[in-house]
Design a protein that fits this description.
The chain has one domain: Lipovitellin-phosvitin complex, beta-sheet shell regions. About 15% of the residues lie in helices and about 50% in strands. The protein is built from five helices and 13 strands. Strands 1, 2, 3, 4, 5, 6, 7, 8, 9, 10, 11, 12 and 13 form a 13-stranded antiparallel β-sheet that branches.
Length: about 325
């Protein structure tokens, strides 16, 4: 009679078999990692996209035993229209600031409101800023854009250029790829030229404008997080960190600002199937040492901003 006897495998043999099984599982898991993907914008003649760019900045400080707070809320609405394709990689179209709204609540100047649509506005404050928006709102910029989402050229019709000059808008700066990107607040990343895998990172160094510090050297570090479920859709997620030059110090009249601390976070979502960015959010906080000559205090600037695709008209759609 043959009896089934217990295994007499040694502990080392058992350990090895478990290790081998673990390695096999790990190999399967690694092979399941998605391959690098090529992401690009998809353009067709007649396509029209509408975006909104909301932003809120609060400035808080305690001066002379008194708490002061200023809040600026803005919202721009921008349209992108594709006119024609130029080969496989480029598209010609128009970028237009359809509407700009700004609301400021400040203890020093009271309340201020501006709407480029002309419905409401406060006179006597930021006249040079709103003159520029008045001159450029509803004026289409002719652009060439590539499938990475990077502007290659920007032009403005001479008629609109002259109005902008009369409105004291810095049109020679704005009517450039970088200038228009900053003016309209197009704060999504330019897509990498090569296929990217989850976890890939890259850096962009540039000069940015800050409301207190002025022009500052910065470094943005982007990371591709891969596909995620967001808002009921499968979207590709990017994250970004922004680092301003740590030794930044700015003199404005009798005011001196020095950057003490900074923190930020940002996330953006790309619709691979449609070939466009659809949403993004960011938060930036700066703590500044402020010296007025007679007083020295810290102030905290907190900016939350983002973008959202609010509409999309397909070619031929009314």
């Amino acid at each position: 009679m043959g009896l089934a006897l217990p295994s007499r495998r040694s502990p080392w043999a058992l350990a090895w078999s478990l290790t081998a099984a673990t390695l096999a599982c790990a190999t399967v898991a690694l092979s399941a990692e998605p391959a690098p993907v090529s992401l690009e914008w998809k353009f067709e003649p007649g396509l029209e996209l509408q975006y909104a760019f909301p932003q809120t900045t609060t400035t808080e400080a305690r001066v002379g035993g008194k708490d002061l707070k200023t809040e600026t809320v803005s919202r721009s609405e921008v349209s992108l229209k594709v006119v024609k394709l130029d080969g496989d990689d480029l598209a010609s179209g128009q970028l237009t600031l359809e509407r700009m709204r700004i609301e400021i609540k400040a203890p020093e100047v009271g309340a201020f409101y501006y709407d480029s649509a002309g419905r409401q506005r406060t006179k006597g404050y930021l006249e040079n800023v709103i003159a520029g928006y008045d001159a450029l709102a509803k004026r289409p910029f002719d652009i060439v854009i590539d499938r990475r989402g990077e502007l290659q050229s920007v032009t403005l019709a001479e008629e609109y250029r002259q109005r902008a000059i009369e409105g004291k808008a810095p049109i020679n700066t704005i009517a450039t790829p970088r200038g228009l990107t900053q003016f309209l607040g197009l704060n999504w990343p330019v897509l990498p030229a090569e296929p990217i895998a989850r976890g890939a990172t890259w850096e962009v160094q540039e000069e940015v404008a800050n409301m207190a510090l002025g022009k500052v050297q910065s470094k943005r570090t982007y990371k591709f997080e891969g596909p995620v479920n967001h808002g009921g859709k499968r979207l590709d997620k990017f994250t970004c960190t922004l680092e301003l030059a740590a030794d930044t110090k700015t003199q404005r009249g009798n005011l001196t600002y020095k950057l003490l601390r900074q923190s930020n976070e940002a996330a953006m979502y790309f619709d691979r199937a449609a070939g466009r960015f659809v949403e993004g959010q960011s938060k930036l906080q700066l703590v500044l040492d402020t010296n007025t000559g007679s007083q020295q205090f810290e102030q905290t600037l907190t900016t939350t901003s983002g973008f959202v695709l609010t509409g999309a008209k397909q070619p031929g759609e009314k």
